[in-house]
Write a structure and sequence with these properties.
The protein is of the alpha/beta class. The chain has a single domain, classed as Alpha/Beta hydrolase fold, catalytic domain (Rossmann fold). The protein contains twelve helices and eight strands. It has helices at 34-44, 70-83, 96-107, 128-139, 142-147, 149-152, 155-159, 162-172, 177-182, 200-209, 225-228, 230-242; strands spanning 2-5, 8-15, 21-25, 49-53, 89-94, 112-118, 187-192, 214-218. Strands 1-2-4-3-5-6-7-8 form an eight-stranded mixed sheet, with helices on both faces. Strand 1 (2-5) and strand 2 form a beta hairpin. Helix 1 crosses helix 12 (230-242) and helix 2 (70-83) packs across helix 3. The chain is globular. The two termini are 32 Å apart.
């Protein structure tokens, strides 16, 4: 399906039936698409309506007109929900989608019933190792920086250019810990025990910061929890929704 939000063409899928609607906000990856989440979508769609949205710059959606912040993406999702007349929904945010979900829950609480964060990004604390690498990279000659780019830069950063590269810079520069403290919606935090992209300690910190949140760790799963353990994740989500 396609619609237009603020002049940008956006693609999304809407499947299943039910009194509740789950909106899935996906991770950040050049190769991310609905197929990654399909098994989870199918399981949830047995009893709920599920909407999967391609963020601007991903899938078949137009890129943003300029570099966007997390707040810009939250504003966009809010406009998308209004356009589709979706109210009081459950927001599921995975990785980057979790950043947007946290912002959305604070800026537009009346549009959200519950919040689900799976291996969410949003904690930006540079370790001593990372600080050292950054310092060394600043001292290195330009020809070495270029040859080390794949080492110093993340895979996501090296895969993109133009407006999306500048967008990623803005996004990873923002630590959302203070935002987490202000979340008032019932929140489920689910984490892959072996996650190395957003390590388990970050999930534990989010659980501590989001008052009253429920925290579940899934064994033998990493940052790809939604497609590695879709049955387990769906069961955890549905249990949370009936409480």
């Amino acid at each position: 399906m396609r619609t237009k939000i603020h002049g940008r063409q956006v693609t999304y899928d809407r499947v299943g039936k039910g009194r509740e609607t789950i909106v899935i906000l996906h991770a950040w990856s050049k190769r991310i698409n609905r197929s990654k989440y399909q098994r989870l979508i199918n399981l949830l769609a047995k009893t709920r309506q599920v909407i999967f949205l391609d963020f601007p710059g991903f899938g078949n959606s137009d890129p943003p007109p300029k570099p966007w912040t997390v707040n810009d993406y939250a504003e966009f999702v809010s406009s998308f929900l209004k356009k589709l007349k979706i109210k009081n929904c459950i927001i599921f945010g995975h990785s980057f989608g979790g950043r947007v979900a946290i912002k959305l829950a604070n800026k537009y609480p009346n549009s959200i019933k519950k919040l689900i964060l799976a291996d969410s990004a949003g904690v930006e604390r540079k370790s001593f190792k990372v600080k050292t690498l950054i310092a060394l990279s600043k001292l290195a000659p330009d020809f070495l920086k270029k040859s080390w780019s794949s080492f110093f830069g993340s895979k996501n950063f090296s895969e993109i250019n133009g407006v999306m590269r500048e967008t990623l810079k803005l996004i990873v520069a923002e630590n959302l810990e203070e935002e987490m403290k202000r979340v008032q919606k019932p929140t489920l935090i689910v984490w892959g025990k072996d996650d190395r992209t957003t390590p388990l300690w970050q999930g534990k910190l989010m659980h501590k910061l989001i008052n009253g949140s429920k925290f579940v760790v899934v064994a033998n799963a990493n940052h790809g929890l939604p497609w590695q353990k879709p049955k387990i994740l769906a069961r955890i989500i549905l249990k949370f929704l009936i409480i």
